[in-house]
Request: fold
Amino acid sequence: MPELPEVENVRRSLLPLVGRRIVDVRIDRSDVIEPTTRARSPRARAAVATPDRLLAGGVVSRLVRHGKHMAIEATDGRAVDVQLGMSGQVLIAPPGQQIGPLTHLHVVWSLDDGGSFGFRDPRRFGGLWPAATFEDLQKVRWAGLGPDALEIRAEVLRERLSHTRRPIKVALMDQGVIAGLGNIYVAEALFDAGISPLRPAERLRPAEVLRLAEGIRRVLEAAVAAGGSTLRDYVNARGEQGEFQGCHLVYGRGGQSCVRCGHTLRSRPIGQRASVWCNKCQR
DNA sequence: CTTATGACCTGATAGC
DNA sequence: TGCTATCAGGTCATAA
Reply:
């Protein structure tokens, strides 16, 4: 999916929404709303997927990100948690323009200035989770998330890693441990820190956790500044691609040479996910 | 409790 | 050209 840098760029490109009133919500596919309740009856589904729960009539007050989640809040308190999953996009159209036509455009919000924004998700691993208030949203949807990766502190990370023997790569992918990293940025951060993805998390030494926390922040800050990574689908709300894919030092470079030492980068699945690292630089 | 596995979806690409 | 297999930025429920 969009990982933290991509979600942050979506958030920033959506900031023109703040202060706009939502005058209409068109729902083309109600099962992207609270998709975890997909098993419910059609009647219950319809009750969950109403314009009112999707901020109809409200004025957008804030866009808040935590990890890979983004909340859209209205001045009356209502909020919607947006999760992009693997292929989700939020797209904005200025006054006088249309978002589409596009396939898999599931929800479109119309604004008081004639603009609009929409939620698109071909693969439907993402979704929208309405809440009565932002506090409810945090309680129900965000309480299980670890601290945001962009601001991770070494002492906090050390505590979070100290109770699991899973490979560090797998632990960092767990949103309950630290929120925001996915397959790309875990690989890049571990390379930056010089730590093998296979190391049991609880066995990292304090100095290594310090390097790791710094590596995570450094990589994410650079990726945010570069507009995120576009491998295939990712675009921000204005439809612009990211540039950080050109800066990947290990992700997607299995079999090529390490930019630091020249050794051939190793590549094999860890925790069911493709992983690439340098055996010499990462210990 | 922690950890592993399959399921959920579509679409792009590689190989035959 | 057209078929099938594989893979992809991520969770989630369930089983071990």
The first helix of chain A runs from residue 4 to 13. Strands of chain A lie at 22-27, 60-66, 69-74, 79-83, 89-93, 105-111, 116-120, 127-131, 266-267, 276-277. The longest strand of chain A covers residues 60-66. The two ends of chain A are 28 Å apart (CA to CA).
